Amino acid sequence: xxxxxxxxxxxxxxxxxxxxxxxxxxxxxxxxxxxxxxxxxxxxxxxxxxxxxxxxxxxxxxxxxxxxxxxxxxxxxxxxxxxxxxxxxxxxxxxxxxxxxxxxxxxxxxxxxxxxxxxxxxxxxxxxxxxxxxxxxxxxxxxxxxxxxxxxxxxxxxxxxxxxxxxxxxxxxxxxxxxxxxxxxxxxxxxxxxxxxxxxxxxxxxxxxxxxxxxxxxxxxxxxxxxxxxxxxxxxx
Length: 237
What we know:
The chain is of the alpha+beta class.
């Protein structure tokens, strides 16, 4: 029984890590050589690209592509992780912001700008992931990184929350985006929900659900995989 080679698009459920999804894929497909492109936080759902067998050779290529997310920001509450999973560290009153006031702030986060990665992230400092240092109560200096927002959309507003869509570059932290929007509005904020809808030419719509991955047979999951030729064709290479 040879390895399955290619790419498998999975629609990740909440409350699990990206590595959990990889572990289940390894069990179902009965192969060890599986990687993933672009970690999704446990609270996040949506598109997780798994690279299978020889597909792992193009992992860096796929990770470098632009991403699209939809999510919600909760104003008036700052958390230790910049999302709803963290501890509440500051609470402020939320003004009756108009759509125009929020949109003006969002428009300031377009094009090129610098983001300082959050302490709770997988970036490594001297070989140790920052989130492990954060768990020990340590905070270290993080270098700001250049990111890019190509497009955004302010969606439904039901204060203290609003919904958004953002199209961004590799290495963009949506948690930090929410946190900084709150800082600009003067009331603080955190990310309350997040779903990755696209990565490059790949979409979450039609991806294998986690339930299908976990409970499917090797054959039923393998036939949903994209071959390396399919991937090249989709990417226009």
